[in-house]
Design goal:
single chain; alpha/beta; Oxidized Rhodanese, domain 1; 2 domains; five-stranded parallel β-sheet; 11 helices; 35% helix
């Protein structure tokens, strides 16, 4: 593990990181979701340290592919250690100075548009191309979800066929239970070239509070 940590905590310049990406390394961004949505390296995958980080990394990332890291300052070693504990051993270093270094270098940046739950509910009747994508587990979805929502559990989003089902003209509003998994999901969708996306802040916790939300429960869980 010492060698894995040593290699994973090598500080990379912007040019060095870009070279790793050309060699098909995955850019894994572990900052807080709020920071990630405001700006990130195009094509990077978000899995924030503040959530069930190691579990989602193990479920969603290939173990045989090189990884380069974008972390909050001082979180480099923690990130590498937590990844190594679930079997990742191909971390190739982190971007020195974090995402700010990328910004200062004038490189291209992507972002995610956040919307409040009440905006989603207001938009539904007026946008025929709007599709709600609920990335919670099937059991969570069955317990209550928006009418006509598509359930695409986050753990199934490694299947490219699942991500290829969306039409170019669809406006996807993505949510989970609280707002962590949805940002992971949006980063995966963007990596597949799907950019007509909104992330619903607060997730289902906020959506179900909306008076005009049309909520459906599956028959098997009705009281």
């Amino acid at each position: 593990m010492d060698n894995v940590i040593k290699k994973g905590t090598i500080a990379l310049s912007v040019d060095e990181l870009k070279a790793k990406v050309k060699e098909e390394a995955i850019v894994l961004d572990t900052r807080h979701a709020d920071e990630f949505t405001q700006g990130f390296i195009p094509g990077s995958i978000f899995i924030g340290l503040e959530g069930r980080f190691a579990e989602w990394a193990g479920n969603l990332l290939p173990f045989d592919q090189k990884i380069v890291l974008i972390t909050a300052p001082g979180k480099e070693e923690e990130t590498v250690v937590r990844l190594s504990r679930v079997g990742f051993d191909k971390m190739e270093g982190f971007l020195k100075g974090g995402f700010n270094s990328w910004l200062k270098a004038g490189e291209k940046v992507d972002m995610i548009i956040d919307v409040e739950a009440d905006e989603l509910i207001m938009d539904i009747p007026h946008d025929p191309n709007l599709k709600v994508v609920d990335v919670r587990r099937e059991t969570e979805f069955a317990d209550g979800h928006l009418a006509n929502a598509l359930n695409l559990p986050l753990n199934e989003m490694t299947d490219v066929a699942e991500l290829a089902q969306f039409e170019d003209n669809e406006n996807l509003y993505v949510h989970c239970a609280g707002g962590y998994r949805s940002v992971i999901a949006v980063s995966l969708l963007k990596r597949q070239g799907i950019h007509n996306l909104r992330n619903v802040l607060g997730g289902w916790g906020k959506i179900k509070e909306q008076e005009k939300a049309k909520i459906v429960k599956e028959a098997r869980v009705l009281n």
